[in-house]
Fold:
Amino acid sequence: MTEIDPVAVLDSLGYGRREGLEAMTGGWANAMWRFDTADGARHVLRVYPHPEWAPAALREQAALQAAAAGGIPVPALEVAGTWHDLAVMVLSWCPGEPLLNALRRRPWKVWALGGACGRLQARIHAITPPQRLLEGAPEYWLAVARAGYPQLDSLIDRIGISTASLVHFDYHPLNILTDGHTITGVVDWATAAAGDPRADVARTVAALSAAPLPPGPLRPLLSAVRGLLLRRWLHGYRAEAGDIGDIAPFVALTGVVYLHDFQQALEEGRGWASERDLATFNRWVERWKAKAGLEGGPQTAQRG
Structure:
C-alpha cells in the first residue's frame, strides 16, 4: 500500500498555504486529516488508501452532491482528484461533534436527537439517487450476502428490493454530527448507493442494537443508552416516512455484511471489534436469521 504523505497530497491539489494539519482518528478505512487555510476556513482531506477503491470515491462524490441538493447537511465537495493512483478529495468542515460523543457527555439528549436522526434518514430516502449510483446497483451488501446465500435470489423475489432511494448505508452515531440541539452534518458517504430504504434502516438497527462499541470507561453507559436511541430513531423515521414494513430479512442480511466487515477489519488491525464482540454479534445475527426464516448461510469464522 502506498504510504500517504498528506503534505504532498495537498500540494498536488493546490492547497499551498495551510496550517494546523492534523490526522483524524475514529474511522475504519479511509485516511483523513483536517487543516485550515489562510481565510480561516477548516477543511478535511480524505484519501482512499487503495487504488481499487477509486470507483467508491466517485460514488461518494455523487452521493454528497445529491444529498446536498436535497437539503441534507453534508460536507461540501471542494476538490477531487488522484495522488499516486489513490482517490483523494477535500471537503468542507461540518460543525458539531459525532452524536456518539455528544451522548457520552449528555445521555439525556438521546430522546430529542434520536428522533431527529430518524427523521433525517427518512429525508435522505426521499432523494432520487444520481445515475452514477444507479449504475452500481445492486449494492455492495447484496454482493457480499449473495456470496454466502445461494438462495438469496429467491428471497429477493419474495421481499422485493428497490433501487429508487438514496441510501447512506453507514448511518450511525459516529457518522452523524450534532451541536447538541440539531443534526449539523452527515459524513462518510463511501458506502452510499441507490437502494432500498428498508436495507438502510436495517443496517442502522444492526449498528444500534449489537455492533461493537468503542472501548473506554463509558462503554457500559453507551450500551444502555443505545437501546433508547434506537426506539426514538425508529419513531422519528416512521413519523416522517410512515410504516417501514417487514425489515427482518434485511436486518439478517445486513447483519451478515457487518460480520464480514468486522472480520476483515479485525484481520487488518482496523477499528475496535474484538473476537468476543464478533461472537456476540454473530449470535444476534443468528436470532434475526431465525426471525426472517433464513437458514444456513455464512457464519462467523471460528478462530482458536
In short: Strands lie at 18-24, 31-37, 42-47, 77-83, 86-92, 97-98, 165-167, 176-178, 183-186, 193-195. The chain has two domains: 6-92, 97-292.
